[in-house]
Amino acid sequence: MNYYSLNNPNHKVSFREAVMQSIAPDNGLYFPETITPLPASFYETITALTNEEIAFRVIQPFVGNEIPETVLKQIIQDTVCFDFPVIPVADNIFALELYHGPTMAFKDVGARFMSRCLEYFNRENDCKTTVLVATSGDTGGAVANGFLGTKNVDVVIAYPGGKVSAIQELQLTTLGANISALEVDGTFDDCQAMVKKAFSDADLAGMHLTSANSINIARWLPQMFYFFFVYKTLKPYNKPIVLACPSGNFGNICAGMLSKRLGLPIARFVAATNANDTVPRFLATGTYTPNPTVATISNAMDVSSPSNFVRILELYQHDLKQLEQDFSSFSFTDAATLAAIKELYRQNGYLSEPHGAVGYLGLQQEMPQQPGSIGVFLETAHPIKFADIVASCLNITLPVPEQIERILNKEKVSHKIKSYQELKNYLMKK
Ligand SMILES: *Cc1c(COP(=O)(O)O)cnc(C)c1O
Questions:
Q1: 429 catalytic, yes or no?
Q2: Beta bridge partners of 196
Q3: C-alpha distances in Å from residue 116, one per residue of 74, 121, 152
Q4: In whole angstroms, what is the distance from residue 170 CA to residue 355 CA?
Q5: Alpha-carbon distance 247 to 253, whole Å?
Q6: Which residue owns the Cα nearest ligand 1 atom 2?
Q7: Of 44, 96, 238, 346, which has the highest C-beta tally within 10 A?
Q8: Atom 1 of ligand 1 has which residue's CA nearest to it?
Q9: How many CB atoms lie within 10 A of CB 343?
Q10: How many whole angstroms from 378 Cα to the centroid of ligand 1?
Q11: CA of residue 39 to ligand 1 center, whole Å
């Protein structure tokens, strides 16, 4: 399978090259050259397949012959080695819990898949790859955990100082070994801009830099898996499915929408955002004008220039009318988010956190227009990752899961930076 740059359809590379480079030399995101629907028989028999079998069928065409079948099956086994429960929350409303992996956010899926692909591609050379990643909170921990000890790979994580939760910070600053953390005086968009600049900096060209953000296809594509798992679980209801994703960089929802192109019967997608509302405003007004990033309680979605939105536009050939057939997007305030966390807990006995609650609000807004459907919102992180907010909102104490207990008394190690030049100096010294 080849991938082309969204800035130049004539620039094409293999799966391996796209993973190693992350982003094309012209700064375009890579996009699969062909998207072939899976056969009807796959969907007819999906309830009889294991998660591993489903994941293999979904991803294999995108990898092609660049990773042997036995290796790819092992990578998948390591990737989907935890549960993806679909929990009934209210009448015809379900939560897909994506937080049962090692760092308790959905990003474990992409990070685990990508680290193992890189390990395979680097197996026979001695050159070192540096994974440079910007995080709004959860990517850092998932990537640190997924890549810890990966041969010939160094990981450098740039995160906005003071803008991630205490547990998120511990998850990305305490592992040591091949993982280091840069605490940036700025926002997530600043971190993301620095990382993008490093990729196109000629002075760093010899460093084999790659990204583990959802701009990298090996992070993004495996996020399709759990949309298929939801369908498998809810197929017996035989009703149209509306899926709401709490969205920041729009990687998750874009993976869902790509799944639909593979024939997955999801009726409609809802991208629910916090106050960083570039996409909902774009749908309403037709103009794409990112505002400065605003800090919110759903910090992993504090993104005002969502990288993956161009991939969604590409899927719909930039035809907004077509896009709106399948897609809506709404923005919600922190006050509404807190009210939703309360409603979910008090009325439905469901413990959520700010991101999942934004997804739930998106679903609430969409469902009246979709009678006869069932709705699913993604619960993208474990409530403990946002313990302060959830506990004070509900006036409860949260039990600490064992994955988190382990890091609580570890020492934070970070390197503070203020500018792109400082990031560059840091990388050049590596
Ligand atoms: C990253 C993240 C999101 C946003 O996902 P995108 O793919 O960037 O839209 C939502 N919730 C949580 C908990 C996250 O960590």
A1: no
A2: none
A3: 9, 9, 12
A4: 20
A5: 7
A6: 300
A7: 96
A8: 300
A9: 17
A10: 10
A11: 30
Q: Are strands 2-5 and 8-14 parallel, antiparallel or unpaired?
A: antiparallel
Domains belonging to the chain, first-starting first, are 84-105+220-401 (3.40.50.1100)
Amino acid at 74: Q
DSSP-derived letter for residue 263 is T
What does the DSSP 8-state code read for residue 165?
A: -
- In what helix (H) or strand (E) does residue 14 lie, and over which residues does it extend? strand 8-14
Helices (H) and strands (E) in the chain, counts: 19, 14
Token pair 């850092």: residue: 140
Question: CB–CB of 400/384 below 8 Å?
Answer: yes
- Residue 16 burial by Cβ neighbours in a 10 Å radius (0-12, 13-18, 19+): middle
End-to-end C-alpha distance for the chain, whole angstroms = 34
